[in-house]
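QA checklist item 7 of 12: single-chain prediction sanity check.
[x] sequence parsed
[x] length recorded as 336
[x] structure emitted
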Amino acid sequence: MKVFEIQNSFGLDNLVMTERADPAPAAGQVLIKLHAASLNYRDLMMVRGQYNPRQRLPLIPVSDGAGEIVAVGEAVSRVKTGDRVAGLFTQKWIAGEPTRPKLGSSLGGPLDGMLAEFAVLSEEGVVSVPDHLSYQEAATLPCAAVTAWHSLIVQGRLKAGETVLVQGTGGVSIFALQFARMMGAEVIVTSSSDEKLERARQLGATHTINYKTNPDWDKATRDITRGVGVDHVIEVGGAGTFARSLKAVRIGGHVGVIGVLSGAASELSVLPILMANIRIQGVLVGSREMFEDMNRAIDLHKMKPVVDRVFPFEEAREAFLHMQSAAHFGKICIQF
């Protein structure tokens, strides 16, 4: 089968299409013919060597993929041949709280990922996808969508009428916008692009802020909420945005810490967290139980993920370059 590997060292120049032997499922496993994959910023960091410099190579990258089960091993009962499925990001996190062994079972590093024609996974590590979604749309769900769901619905306990601040228009942020609107919440979206902000309004954003022309977006958020602050912040910026997120959230509000797009480390005063009783929650994707709950909501509302662009399998490296440019709105997909 054809696969893409990070071979002897990290870097996009070392992401190479090559051949591996066709896999076969053992007992309790399924063989998936992959039809699509989608990229997350984590995948780009993994290829660059920034996510885990000690990751063993060669590695098939990319955590998110969807396809059709074409064979099953002995004693498989959860799924069957012909089922349309996506892989679970953390193969061993079925339900409950995360643990180190559960979090150490993620696809695309340390385990081989989905940038391959076929994948063998445990029957416990796949999730059936809604019928109304294409394979490309289904491939966007395992990481970005589950992360947004985990942050807002599970940890944030989002209620109708609350206000959510979403940073940017990447995969997690757009899913957060869609889920928040599904739940009847108001959404404020920030971006440096007026064009992207207009698209966010078309998806239901109540307010938008261009942080390039209005760098004090935390103050603008306070003005929009009449001085109160938002109930929830989807914090994907990291070190460069975290201090402003603490100013934008209300007393007793919730900040879901998800990304590090502007850096991972900075000096931080804990006083605003203490004095405003703010709840800070790190969010690392989620369990199969969360994934399945989310899919039921997506199916009920016939929600469609936002796909920015689809690249053919042979142009996987160009898909990574597109992500690196930060020009995308929503998810970047690869079609097999």
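[x] summary fact logged: Residues 141-155 form the longest helix (15 residues).
[ ] second reviewer sign-off
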